TrEMBL record:
Keywords noted in UniProt: Carboxypeptidase, Hydrolase, Protease, Signal
Signal peptide residues on this chain, from the entry's feature table: 1-25
NCBIfam families, alphabetized: PBP4
Gene Ontology biological process terms, A to Z: peptidoglycan metabolic process; proteolysis
Protein name: D-alanyl-D-alanine carboxypeptidase/D-alanyl-D-alanine-endopeptidase
GO MF term list: serine-type carboxypeptidase activity
InterPro entries per UniProt: Beta-lactam/transpept-like, Peptidase_S13
Family: Belongs to the peptidase S13 family.
SUPFAM superfamilies attached to this UniProt entry: beta-lactamase/transpeptidase-like (SSF56601)
Length: 488
C-alpha cells in the first residue's frame, strides 16, 4: 500500500506538520557529455547570459553569489559576490564530506562493539554509526548466541564516545522535532527515527494509529482529535508534539478513501531507544536480558561481538546524494576520532576544528567559510561561493576525486537532482549538491560539457522572499548555460 510521509515540527508548545516525500536513492552514474547541445555560448557571452537570468524583475531584492571556474586552471569565467558569506544550507555537506575523505580515507568504517566483563556484565560501545539498523542488531545478537550466551545479567550502554548535545543548539525548534533533525550521539539506530501510520476508518471515527515499533507505543501519550470524513473530501492532517517529548496530538481529517499517512518522528533519547530495541532483538534469539544502564566511560575487556558500518565511501554517498543530515553530523563527529579529548569541548566542535585543518591542508582559504554544524541545518553557517568552488576544484585533483564525485547527485538521474534538469543539456553531465532552507537556495558542483573543458561552479541565493519553486528554475537556467559553453 502506498503511503505519504509527513514530518513533525514544533513552535513554542506546538507547531504544525510539514509534508515531505522521500525520494528513493539511485546509484550514482559517471557523467558523459552528450553528442551535441541545442545551443552554443562563447565564454565572452557567458556573463551577459547569466546577468540576464539574475536581473529578472522578480529577483530585484534577491542576493546572488556565483562563481564559475575551470577545474584544471582555476580561471574564473564568471563571478558575482563570490567572496561574500551566504547561508549555504546543505551545501555545507560538501565541506564536511571532503574533510572526512581527506582525513579518514575511503575505507574508514565505524564500529559498534560488545565487550564481556566479569560477573556476566556486557558493555555495548556505540561510536555513532549512522547506518546501524535492526538488521545489524540481529547480527550482534546472533554473534552473542554463537558464543553460548543465553542470559545477560546486565547490559551497559557506553555513551562516552560522542560527547556534547545530541542536537545542535543553533538548530530551529521545528528542525529538532522533525525527522531530518534527528538527534546524534554514540548510539544511532534506524537513523534515530520511528514511524506511525494513520489509517482512515468509518466516517466520523478517529483515525486508527498503527505503530511500526511497539516499544515506542508505550513511550507516548496520544491525544487523537482526528476524524474520518466522506470520500473525496480534502485530507488535512496536523501532528503536534509538546516540549516534554511525551505527548503527540493528532488533529485534522482523512477521507475514507485516502491512503494512510506515514508520520515519521525523531526519538527522544537515542541511548534508551537503542537498549529497548536491543532487548527485543535479543529475546528473538532466546537471550534474556536483565538490567540495562547508560554510563559514560568504563573499562572494556574482551570484545565478543561487533558490527562495522559500510566504508566511508558509501556513507558519503548517502550524505551527498540524499542530503542526509544525520549522516553528515555523524561524519562530523567521526572526524574527532583521532583527536585528543578537550575539556568542555564537544565532539562536534572538535570535528569542526578538523574540517578547518583538513581543508586548509587541501588549499581552501580558511577565511572563506564559518561552520557551526556538519549538515547545513543551522542558519549560522556562513560559506562563500569561493570556499565551495575551492573545495570542489582542489579535491578534484586528489586521489579521492572519483569517490567524491561519484557520491554527488547526477542531474536528471539520481538523488536530490533526480527530477531536475530532465530533457535539458545538463541531464547526465552535471554533478552537484543541492541546498535549501527558507529564503536560501544553493547548488554547487561540476559540469562535464561536450565542447568545453570541465567546470566547477557554485550558485547561492539568499535573502529571498521568493518560493523555492521560483528560485530553482533560475539556478537551473544558469547551469544549463554552463553546459552550452564552447570555445569560440
Amino acid at each position: 500500500m502506498m503511503t505519504q510521509k509527513i514530518t513533525v515540527g514544533l513552535m513554542l508548545l506546538f507547531l504544525g506538520t510539514h509534508i515531505s516525500i522521500t525520494q528513493q536513492a539511485a546509484t550514482a552514474q559517471t557523467p558523459t557529455p552528450p553528442a551535441s547541445t541545442t545551443k552554443a555560448i562563447c565564454p565572452a557571452q557567458l556573463g551577459t547570459s547569466i546577468d540576464a537570468v539574475i536581473n529578472r524583475p522578480s529577483f530585484n531584492r534577491v542576493r546572488w553569489g556565483i562563481l564559475v571556474q575551470s577545474i584544471s586552471s582555476g580561471q574564473t569565467l564568471y563571478s558575482r559576490d563570490a567572496q561574500k558569506y551566504f547561508t549555504p544550507a546543505s551545501n555545507t555537506k560538501l565541506l564536511t564530506t571532503a574533510a572526512a575523505l581527506q582525513q579518514l580515507g575511503a575505507n574508514f568504517r565505524i564500529r559498534t562493539s560488545i565487550y564481556q566483563n566479569a560477573n556476566g556484565v556486557l558493555r555495548v560501545v556505540g561510536r555513532g554509526d549512522p547506518s546501524l539498523s535492526d538488521t545489524q542488531l540481529q547480527t550482534l545478537a546472533q554473534q552473542l548466541q554463537k558464543k553460548g550466551i543465553t542470559q545477560i545479567k546486565q547490559l551497559i550502554a557506553d555513551d562516552s564516545y560522542i560527547q556534547g548535545d545530541i542536537v545542535n543548539s543553533t538548530w530551529e525548534l521545528e528542525d529538532v522535532q522533525s525527522d531530518y533533525g534527528a538527534p546524534i550521539g554514540s548510539f544511532i539506530l534506524n537513523e534515530n527515527i520511528f514511524s506511525i501510520k494513520l489509517i482512515p476508518q468509518t466516517i466520523g471515527k478517529p483515525l486508527q494509529i498503527a505503530w511500526n515499533d511497539t516499544n515506542e507505543a508505550t513511550r507516548w501519550r496520544i491525544v487523537n482529535q482526528s476524524t474520518t470524513v466522506n470520500k473525496n473530501q480534502e485530507s488535512n492532517i496536523n501532528i503536534t508534539r509538546d516540549l516534554t517529548g511525551t505527548v503527540l496530538r493528532i488533529q485534522g481529517q482523512l477521507s475514507q478513501d485516502s491512503q494512510p499517512y506515514l508520520v515519521t518522528l525523531p526519538v527522544v533519547d537515542p541511548n534508551y531507544y537503542f537498549l529497548r530495541s536491543f532487548r527485543t532483538v535479543l529475546a528473538k534469539q532466546n537471550i534474556t536480558l536483565g538490567q540495562t544502564l547508560v554510563l559514560n566511560g568504563g573499562s572494556n575487556q574482551q570484545e565478543i561481538a561487533a558490527i562495522d558500518s559500510p566504508p566511508l565511501s558509501e556513507l558519503i554517498k548517502v550524505t551527498l546524494e540524499d542530503s542526509n543530515n544525520l549522516y553528515a553530523e555523524s561524519l562530523l563527529r567521526a572526524l574527532a576520532i583521532k583527536q585528543p579529548r578537550v575539556q568542555n569541548k564537544s565532539t562536534a566542535d572538535i570535528g569542526l576544528d578538523v574540517i578547518k585543518t583538513s581543508l586548509t591542508q587541501l588549499g581552501v582559504d580558511p577565511t572563506t567559510y564559518f561552520l557551526v554544524d556538519g549538515s547545513g541545518l543551522s542558519r549560522r553557517n556562513l560559506i562563500s561561493p569561493e570556499a565551495l568552488v575551492q573545495t570542489l576544484r582542489l579535491i578534484a585533483k586528489t586521489p579521492n576525486s572519483a569517490i567524491y564525485r561519484a557520491a554527488l547527485p547526477v542531474a536528471g538521474k539520481s538523488g536530490t537532482l533526480k527530477n531536475r534538469f530532465r530533457n535539458t543539456p545538463a541531464e547526465g553531465i552535471v554533478q552537484a549538491k543541492t541546498g535549501t532552507l527558507t529564503g536560501a537556495v544553493s547548488l554547487s558542483g561540476y559540469v562535464n560539457g561536450a565542447k568545453y573543458e570541465p567546470l566547477v561552479f557554485s550558485i547561492m541565493v539568499n535573502q529571498s522572499e521568493q518560493p523555492v519553486r521560483n528560485l530553482r528554475p533560475a539556478i537551473d537556467d544558469i547551469v544549463v548555460l554552463l553546459t552550452q559553453l564552447q570555445r569560440c
